[in-house]
Each structure stands twice: as C-alpha cells, then as structure tokens.
Amino acid sequence: MNLEALQRAKDGLQIQDVFLKSSSSKLAEGFDPKFDPRLESLQLELRTTPKRSYLIEGVHQGENIAIFRVEMELGARQVCPFDGEEGEEAQPDVMVQIDATFMADYVIANSELKADREALDAFAVANAGYHVWPYWREYFSSQVSRMNLPKVMLPMMQFTKASSAKTAKKPD
C-alpha cells in the first residue's frame, strides 16, 4: 500500500456519516442458546471486508458537495470446533451467524482528491473500517442479547496487516 497516497486521503477526507445498509442474524437449526451443551465450546470468528467504494456528487442545502462512500461488510459467527476424523475436510458447525453491511460517508474537502483513485482506494482498505467498527460492535452486542446468547464483547479494534491482506478485497 502506498502510504503517501493513504496520507493524501486522510488529509482530504472528513467523516460525515456511518449507517446500516443491511443485516441478518440466525441461529443454526436445532441450536438452543439456553440449553445446548455446545454453547460452552463455541469459538468466535470475525470478518471485515471493504466491499466497494464510490463518489457521490450533488447539491445539499444549496451547496455542491462531493462524498466518498465506502461499503463495509462485517460478520461474526460462533462455531463448534471440528471434531471429525483426521484427513476429513474440516468444516466447523456454524451455530450463530450475524452479518451487517455499513456505509461510511466522507466529505471530500480537497477537490483534487476526487480524481486520486489510488488515495481513495488506500483509504477504503486501511481506514474506513476504523470508523465503522464502533457501530458494528454496538450492533453485534445488541443482536447477541436479542438472540438470548451469552454476552460477547468484540475487541476495540480487529484490524491487523495480515488479516487485512487476506480478507480485504479492493473496492470497485
């Protein structure tokens, strides 16, 4: 990643809004969070992926504005560890699945940044997740409670260079 390009985006973007676009939650068929003995062995798996990003230009309250929008897909699932025979394809049983897509909007303060796709792409991959994460944490915590699951607190941040490289797709 070009750190100079990333810095250009950081200097030229201002967070304006974060909102939920879509979400889904489900428990596995036959899994009862009150009484299932597998509850104690569940392991949490997280996913954070910038799906796409794009520019929006228009007039808002009589002023021309340019918005850079990043769509982030986030997910968490609780799985039972694989207990099959060695050599078998290891597929854990997914007991809980919670997914959400959030949109992060940034005002483009520097008009030259609109044409700097390298900087915008770098920002979408490296920074947008930091702005969306608190909203995801709140949503996830709320859904866990509504699904009658034991409280699970997501960490303050869940981004590392290794996981970003593996899971992040380059935004469109």
Write the layout of secondary structure elements.
Blueprint (H helix, E strand, L loop, with lengths): L2 H10 E15 L15 E18 L2 E18 L12 E16 L8 H10 L1 H19 L14 H7 L5
Antiparallel strand pairs: 1-4, 2-3, 3-4
Helix pairs in contact: 1-2
Please supply descriptive tags for the structure shown above.
172 residues, alpha+beta, four-stranded antiparallel beta sheet, 27% helix, elongated, disordered C terminus
Give start-end ranges of low-pLDDT stretches. 158-172
| Tally of strands | 4
Alpha carbon gyration radius: 19 Å
The number of helical elements comes to: 4
Taken from the alpha-carbon principal axes, the silhouette is elongated
What share of the residues does DSSP label as strand, in percent? 35-45%
- Biggest sheet features: 4 strands, antiparallel
Q: Please estimate the helix content.
A: 25-40%
Note down, in words, how this protein is organized:
The protein has 172 residues and is α+β, with helices and mostly antiparallel strands. It is built from four helices and four strands, in the order αββββααα. The protein has helices at residues 3-12, 117-126, 128-146, 161-167; strands at 13-27, 43-60, 63-80, 93-108. The chain has a four-stranded antiparallel β-sheet. Helix 1 (3-12) packs across helix 2 (117-126). The longest helix has 19 residues, at 128-146. The chain starts with a helix and ends in a 5-residue tail after the last helix. Residues 158-172 have low confidence and may be disordered.
